[in-house]
């Protein structure tokens, strides 16, 4: 038992997070997504909305560390509006709601005066696009009649990317991928995630989506690079505001933002890929 504890502690130290709590939280989140989509899909939209609201609270606290006070309640209201518009109006609803929310957000900042207006407006706009807008594509994935299959395929892709980047990085990682941004990420981890996410995507597309395996392989490549970019961007943001984790709500992960970072960038890419495939199939090109 002591040997297992020592091995676990060594893994935790090298990876920078606790392994077992991380696995438990991941399983819980997957079950939550599966139950919501297999019962009433609108519940999934509600779960995404709540996650984004919690993420905005974390981002609000992070920006306060560098004396930027983004409007928490305005962004919370915008999140609810964007999520509802996306669920009921699709991608058009998301686009129009964002176009309306953006100027409203700026107008609501005017009563604060001109001091630090550019900084606050820029950070608020970043929060609007980074969280509710990008998260809207998660809702778009779960919105159609095959939303369960689409989202679970996405879960497989992101899960393979995160898990095997973590494992191969811990076991074989020697060459930092971006040492100034995220020192624990390695090139070996990226290669491992690429190999296994391509395999996972191929299997998921063939058995879950009932589609061609090679489309899944292409989606795997797309997911690895978009998810890794999202992870690095959140790491850069945390380094700029000098914090380790965005929060502590999820044991082994940190905050909601530490779980959403890769998801937010990968979701629009997969949604676009599925739309291209669907239209190509409808036109007889595939």
From TrEMBL:
GO terms for biological process: CDP-diacylglycerol biosynthetic process. Its main location: membrane. Keywords: Cell membrane, Lipid biosynthesis, Lipid metabolism, Membrane, Nucleotidyltransferase, Phospholipid biosynthesis, Phospholipid metabolism, Transferase, Transmembrane, Transmembrane helix. This is Unannotated protein. It comes from freshwater metagenome. One of its GO terms (cellular component) is plasma membrane. It is found in: Cell membrane. It is a multi-pass membrane protein. One of its GO terms (molecular function) is phosphatidate cytidylyltransferase activity. The chain crosses the membrane at residues 19-36, 42-59, 71-88, 94-111, 123-142, 154-174, 186-207, 213-233. Belongs to the CDS family.
